[in-house]
Specification:
77% helix, mainly alpha, elongated, 231 residues
Amino acid sequence: MFISYLYLRSIRGSELSVRQIAFFASGITSALLVIVTPVGARAMDYFSLHMVQHITLMMITGPLLVLGTPNSFHPTSKIFRALTQPVFSWVAYALLMIGVHLPGPHAYIMENPWAHTYLEVPLYIALPYLFYFNLLDRNLVNRRVSPAISVLSLFLMMVPETLTGFFIYTAPGSLYQEMYTLNDQRRGGSLMWSGAMIIDTIWMSFAVYHWIKSEEKKSRDFDAEIAAENG
């Protein structure tokens, strides 16, 4: 609700396409589907459901909210610019993803429901938004991160994502003090391992599309300059 309120405030006086509204609505819906449904209710009991919630919020909700953000939304706040700094946001995203699945932090979160509800879940939404904000930028000019670097950044993020899932899946025994069955732990690991590759490929295709459009614009601008000089 709070995110929707901020969104409605931000779009006042902004030109917003139907596609952007659809992206934002899809992002909110995806979050609700894994927070207020049985998936969210049992995410503390089953590792596989916890992983479904994690993957959805970090790899689907965050990017969809970015794609639904108005093109005119480019805050000049030093804090926002620092949080969306490409290297910082990449590292913060990777550390969150890896850190919450280390045995110690994971056990603490599972033993303290408040940490899951008021710390983990909000971070699952906020940090991915900050990470994807520059990478899925719809603007073809004056971008903070070039389309080529966006594709590279998304590709590199596949490494910690898939390796996290791989090591969880291949662990010979329980990583989390017998909190879950070994089969449940392996299901969660396989979801992270395979799901990350599939979802990342989708967002990479968006970045590649923006890259192609950017190059097309450069070509048109160059041709226009040549025509102006010859005219």
